Amino acid sequence: MTSGDRTDVTDVGDATSPYDPRGERDRTRRGGTAVARRPPALVAVGHGSRDPRAARVLSELAAGVRALRPGTDVRVGYVELNRPLVGEVLAELTGEVVVVPLLLGRGHHVKHDLPQALVGAAHLRGVVAGALGPHPLLARALHERLLAAGWTSAGQAVVLAAAGSRDPESARDTERTAALLSARLGGVPVLPAYASAADPTVPRAVAALAGRGLRRIAVASCFTAPGRFAAQCADAAPWIVSAPLGAHEAMAELVLCRYDEARATLRAGAAVGAPA
């Protein structure tokens, strides 16, 4: 599977988790006896933030992943701003590794920074998983965060607030996530908007929906953890705003889904650093 392979918008509804929480046990033969082989380490990589809550949230998410997959070495690293950096985490590992971006769409970090970090860890055999979104599990987490924030059938529209990227594939991923969320909400309009690098901004998206006569407009935070962008988008909410996705159970399931997809390509002999 390439980083461009994603679940179609039509694959929604009561989607169940596509991963096995126990994991498929790798086995080798030794003297005619099947012997369990250590699974690849899972390095979950966040962007990094000066907000101290962000690192705590990602630690909680990693704990949720460990609880679902006992026996897998799960670690957290960052692209920037926080320690340990992903390169520092990789330097401590041996054997096989799957790097899972805790990023919700394709962009420069997923396509370039993380593959380069893995190429720099020449002592490892590894692969970079695809971005977390779009995916029905991501839509589920967004939906349930909205419900927790007070969303009801009286809601008229949603602005899906994302970080933004100059990469057009990132915008397409956010658009598909918006469509998945709209389907879960029964067809309520969901308009993507961005904190930086892309248009429209959240205030412009809110204004566009209000211009169509819609008043009860929620902002759904399409962010893994709290930070400047999440706060900036929340400030523009005219009604309710959902919390960042954080350690939601569906996010832990989604991390393992991407891990298992990438792990399959690793067994098939994928090149080090290639996004799965």
From TrEMBL:
Residues 1-37 are annotated as: Disordered. InterPro entries: CbiX-like, Sirohydro_Cobaltochel/CbiX. Keywords: Lyase, Metal-binding. It comes from the Bacteria. CDD domains: CbiX_SirB_C, CbiX_SirB_N. Pfam families: CbiX (PF01903). One of its GO terms (molecular function) is lyase activity. PANTHER family: FERROCHELATASE CHE1, SIROHYDROCHLORIN FERROCHELATASE, CHLOROPLASTIC. This is Sirohydrochlorin ferrochelatase. It comes from Actinacidiphila yanglinensis.
